[in-house]
């Protein structure tokens, strides 16, 4: 017997076949309807979010929910503006569906085309952050992927309101298949979704380290994402210190509760005594707790205004705080900084501040992270800021997609071979024909008639 949850997933899977062939114009019209609907229904969204925040703040006081989770839950007018801007940016992105990636002549009249296509049915499981719904729905719609969403109970009202507003807007556009986007709401449905490997082609988890790790460990479905966001900024002895102060402060303080915020500051020993006191004063002014190795502690303990100063322990180097806490270590070389990053980091985002060109290249070459920043804040590691319109997540994987993943990470490809009665038997035996394997500069859409809805 098919359960209600399985029925929803099967419906979305069937809709994915139709959605894959919807025209670009139709998808863009649906995206514009989505953005307009968010604007028109602002008050409904904000009211729903207030109900979630009231419950979340009670849970936070009881120790059942972290402050970072509460911060991520908040929706404001400016956040709604950001949701709308993200959707409209997706409208302007190239539609990658049906793009010819390569074309090859196997023999005269026998041509092979590699063509991009949607992955199919995407499962998105996320905690807090209701803005995940419009971000991912926009990218999945434009890339022709159906989507099953499962948000956390702490954002139940916000997620439901935003989801219903968006789906109603999409269904105004004739030709978009109904049922392509589904919302799951109960805690039990998480395990059901993880067992849906016959239907769901890719899972994207968004949430805490333990949450993402749980998803990765409990499903056969491929998972795109990262468990940790342990990001570093290394201030070199040849750094422009004015740049370094701005970059480090922005990387930690601009928004501490996110995966691309700096968690460890590495400082070259030659400039540590000059750089650290002012940097610590700036961070102290923003209520950042400093967890220092022995050398940085010795420098900063002499300063009267530094109150939030403790000694770091080994665990600090591999901790994602998602809070106003920063570990600091003094290193004797760029090599030691790189070694520390590759040992303790999570291959997410790491930055160097230096004016030395050779060191810039060395850091970029040897730091094994999905985003490497040179004289720029780690907070730039974001799909919207990378020009992807929005992002489905940030991946530290080394296959399929890496870094902030936009629409290209929701695409795969297929091969289309066009012949004229050709058979393999002609290429076997003493009188076998030979393959030409000649590259072509042709598009499949120019060879066969497009058949889009």
Automatic annotation (TrEMBL):
Q: Name one GO molecular function term.
A: glutamate-5-semialdehyde dehydrogenase activity
Q: What is its EC number?
A: 1.2.1.41
Catalytic activity annotation: L-glutamate 5-semialdehyde + phosphate + NADP(+) = L-glutamyl 5-phosphate + NADPH + H(+)
Which terms under GO biological process does the entry name? L-proline biosynthetic process
Listed SUPFAM superfamilies:
ALDH-like (SSF53720)
Query: Could you tell me where this protein is found in the cell?
Result: Cytoplasm
Which superkingdom is the protein from? Answer: Archaea
Q: Which UniProt keywords apply?
A: Amino-acid biosynthesis, Cytoplasm, NADP, Oxidoreductase, Proline biosynthesis
Instruction: Please report the stretch or stretches of sequence annotated as the Aldehyde dehydrogenase domain.
Output: 4-288
Checking Pfam families in the record gives:
Aldedh
Pathway assigned to this chain's UniProt record? Amino-acid biosynthesis; L-proline biosynthesis; L-glutamate 5-semialdehyde from L-glutamate: step 2/2
Q: What Gene Ontology terms describe where this protein resides (cellular component)? A: cytoplasm
Q: Which family does it belong to?
A: Belongs to the gamma-glutamyl phosphate reductase family.
General function of this protein: Catalyzes the NADPH-dependent reduction of L-glutamate 5-phosphate into L-glutamate 5-semialdehyde and phosphate. The product spontaneously undergoes cyclization to form 1-pyrroline-5-carboxylate.
Its recorded name reads Gamma-glutamyl phosphate reductase
Organism field: Methanomethylovorans hollandica (strain DSM 15978 / NBRC 107637 / DMS1)
Please name the taxonomic classification of the source: Archaea, Methanobacteriati, Methanobacteriota, Stenosarchaea group, Methanomicrobia
Gene coding for it: proA
